[in-house]
C-alpha cells in the first residue's frame, strides 16, 4: 500500500526499477530451439530491460550448459556490447550443479547465480542437506565475485528459508522471492513476503491462480493481471525494501502461462512433514496441430507482461505522487 511514509521512496525508485527478461517467459520456444540464449539478449535490449535471467539448460542443444568456452565468451561479449547484466539460474543445490552454474556464470561475465534445492525426505533431513550444500557454496565460491540467491520454490516455507540464509553467515547469499511459489508451501503471498523481506534481493514476477487441494494449495500460472496474486501490493512492498538504497536489485519478468505445480505442504502435516521429489519446472507442450499458434502466443504473452508490469509501476507512481501533493 502506498502511504505518506513510503511515497518519496517509491518516487525515487520506480522509474529506474531494474527489470530483467526471464528466459522462462519463452520456455516453450526455447525447448524447441526456436529462441536461443543469444536471442534473449536481443529481446531484452529491444525492450530496454536491465538484463536477462537464463537457466543453464535453456535452449536445449544450444544452451549455455552445452556451449564450449568460445561460445560462452561470444555470449558474454554480446551482453557487454548491449550493456546487459546476466544472471545464471539452475535447478538444484548439490555440488555438481553449483559447480556448473558458477563456471558458466564466470565464463559469461554474469553477476549472480540462482539455485533452489530439490530433495526428497522428511523436512529436517532435507534442511540438513541444504545447509550442507550452502556450506560447500560458501567454502568454494564466497569470494569468486558472484552473488547468489536461493529461490523459494514450492516446498519450503518462508521461515525455513530465512533460517537457512541466516545460518549460512554468507553475505553473498540472499533470497529470491517468487510471486507465486509460496502457494504450494501453503502460504499466502503477502504473508510470505513479510517473513522473507529482510533477506530478499531478487524477484520473479508472475501471476497465478490458487487451486485448493485437500488441505493445501496448488498454483496454475496465468497471464499477468488475470490471476489471484496481489500484484500491485507485492510490487509496492518490494520497491520499498531497503532504507538508504533499494534492497531488491533485480526483478525477473517470468510469464509462465499454463505452468502448474501441485500442493507440497498441508494444514495437517505436523512439524516434520515428508517433502516429495520434484522434477524441474516445465510447462506442457500442446498437441502438434496447436503448436505454432501456442509458440506465437507465448511470445505475445511475454511482451504483454513487460507492458503490464510497467503499467502497474506507473499506477503505483501516480498514487505516490498524489499522496505527496494532495
TrEMBL record:
The keyword Isomerase applies. One of its GO terms (molecular function) is isomerase activity. InterPro entries: IolE/XylAMocC-like (IPR050312), Xyl_isomerase-like_sf (IPR036237), Xyl_isomerase-like_TIM-brl (IPR013022). Residues 92-238 form the Xylose isomerase-like TIM barrel domain. Keywords: Isomerase. This is Xylose isomerase domain-containing protein TIM barrel.
